[in-house]
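URGENT: need a sanity check before tomorrow's submission.

F., can you look over the Formamidopyrimidine-DNA glycosylase record below? I want to be sure the sequence and structure line up before it goes out.
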Amino acid sequence: MPELPEVESLAEFLRGHAVGRKVGAVEVYGFQALKTVDPPVTALAGRTVTGVTRHGKFIDLDCDGLHLVTHLARAGWLRWHDDLSRARAVRPGKGPLALRVRLAPYETGEQEPGFELTEAGTQKRLAVYVVRDPGEVPGIAALGPDPLSDGFTAEVLGGILNGSRAQIKGLLRDQKVIAGIGNAYSDEVLHAARTSPFKVAGSLTDEQVTALHEAIVTTLRTALDRARGLAAKDLKAEKKSGLRVHGRTGEPCAECGDTIREVSFADSSLQYCPTCQTGGKPLADRRMSRLLK
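Structure tokens as predicted:
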């Protein structure tokens, strides 16, 4: 799943490649992805892309006051093309293509650039909205603070955690609490903070809150620095190469050498290092035993 660093890098890429160009056409192939009907998607044609913003994991293209907003969900991706002039229409609902945005060339005969939104798998969760204000998108309106904003301080984080009985792993992934962190980077953050994913959020001491805040900001900024400037097609591989625990079950921990372990759930899993995070104790599967605090 694309998370804050990858989504921000995609937004930066679009700022450099799409801003200033007019929208030639928007073609919808995955009708389940389009979540709005007014304004119609056809209203974007002829408008100029004036800015690209990230809201949590949402990408927002401002097209002369109308906003094309997308959330890539778990298996979605944005694919840039320098020339879409030869791209043919495909049968709606067939294949991974959900949306194609053609950008008008600056001059006659110039290449027709643009991008496609694709989604692998059978669970179609990629979402596209055309709105007059990004706040009209329910997921954006409900977002918590952005962890890379100047206002996200250790004190703010402490206020979020204070009194919470939620497990820290789940809390970090809750977009209504903190925007932009998903399954992968929550594993990375908790490893850096040397914290059990099952620890009760409200039980963290002031020192642990400070360490967690540092881990959140450092982990995300480091990942963003690695992703910055890369082409969209290279971001997935860069993300995977930079992960230290997530997706590395059975490998040695880069910090201590212990074996990275996994806890599986119905539709996801988490990875952690027992030595670094749980005092050397392996975590039991939550489906079979009580959580380790």
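My own read: The domain at 4-141 is CATH 3.20.190.10 (N-terminal domain of MutM-like DNA repair proteins). Strands lie at 23-28, 49-55, 58-63, 66-71, 76-81, 97-103, 114-119, 127-131, 261-264, 269-272. If you see anything odd, call me.
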